[in-house]
Structure formats: C-alpha cells, structure tokens
Design brief:
globular; 2 domains; MmpS family membrane protein; four-stranded antiparallel sheet; single chain
Length: 207
C-alpha cells in the first residue's frame, strides 16, 4: 500500500511539472520531446524511490528493474533524437542508414558495426540503433553472449551516434552484464553492470 501511495504522489508531481512545461512552451511544443523527458524523470524517480523498499515486498524487485530499463530507454531516445542532432547539426537521412551533416551530404563509406552483450544468463534488449532498413534485434536473448553485426552506410566525417540498451533477465544476485559497440573493429562504447537488477547503456561515436 505504501508503495502505491509513493508511486501515485511522485507521478502526480512529475505530471504537473510536464504540464507546466507544456504550457510555457505554448502551441509549438514538441509532444515527443516532452513525453521523453517526462518518461525519463518519472521512471527514474520511481525506480530510485523503490530502492528504499525491501525486496521482500511483492513486485518491488521486478518493478524497480522495469522502471530503470524504461528510464534508460527514454534517455536514449532523448540523446538520439534531440541532443545529438542539436550538438552536431546532423540528422538521419533515409532508410539506408546514411547520416548527413548540415545542408549538404558528405562523403559516405561502408562501416561494420557490431552490437554485443556478454554476461550471465540472458538479457532484454531495449534498443540497438541505428540498424539497416527493415532490420530488427530480438526483444530478449535467453543465453549470452550475443552479437549482432550490421553493415551501415555512414558519413565519413560524422558517422553518427550508436546506442545499445539492455537489462539482465533474472538470475543470481551477483550476475554480470556488459554491452559493447564496435565500429570497424574499434570500441566506441562499453558499459558494465552487476546484480539482480543490472542494466547497461552503451552510447558513443567513432573519434
């Protein structure tokens, strides 16, 4: 009962914040942007709040893991759709995986990108991007390690941002999970986590 009350109160506070921001932005607001910010804050705060409750309470461990995963997924969406284009002035151009920089198209090249997960047991995959048109990754992998190599056409000067998000399936409390992204054999992102509620967030671009 206490968990429900805390969730409702925090949700109401964050919802009020999101509505206030929407009102300030006026009719030209970006609903997707607001939604991602709201999701990141809501899921992140709720996940943190649940850490104060003992794992012996029903559904607390599962809820905490799911909320952490959703918060990371919302953060990845913000980075991929808004932050990175704002910093680099680039945008995703077309279904072939080509990135363009500014008003003109730079020289492109083929790159081999490998998304990898290692660790104990299996993992749920929240995001792996970019991918070739029409290609997807499985929602979950029941046994690690897992590798997913792809061929992408990228801008030679600015290959873009590569992201991989995953959370571990229930195993032991000391289980480990790691994600790695390589571009043409060079590691551009790596993250590790351990424990029953492990989750990883890999995001990076070639130097």
């Amino acid at each position: 009962m206490v968990v429900v009350v805390v969730v409702v109160v925090l949700g109401a506070v964050l919802l009020g914040t999101a509505v206030a921001v929407a009102v300030l932005l006026g009719p030209g607001l970006d609903l997707a942007f607001i939604g991602l910010i709201f999701g990141f804050l809501l899921f992140g705060v709720l996940s943190a709040a649940l850490r104060f409750f003992p794992d012996s309470l029903p559904l607390v461990p599962s809820a905490r893991r799911i909320l952490s995963f959703l918060s990371l997924a919302a953060l990845a969406g913000l980075l991929y759709l808004y932050v990175y284009p704002a910093v680099t002035h680039s945008s995703f151009a077309g279904p072939d995986g080509t990135y363009q920089n500014g008003p003109g198209v730079g020289t492109t090249r083929q790159a081999t990108v490998v998304y990898s997960l290692t660790g104990d047991g299996g993992a749920s995959i929240g995001a792996a991007s970019p991918l070739p048109s029409g290609e997807t990754v499985p929602a979950s992998v029941h046994q690690l390690p897992w590798d997913h190599p792809v061929q992408l056409t990228v801008n030679a000067k600015n290959p873009g941002l590569f992201t991989l998000i995953a959370s571990g399936l229930p195993v032991d409390d000391d289980s480990a999970l790691a994600c790695t992204i390589t571009v043409d054999g060079v590691v551009v992102a790596h993250d590790e986590s351990s424990g029953a509620h492990r989750s990883v967030f890999c995001s990076g671009k070639p130097q």
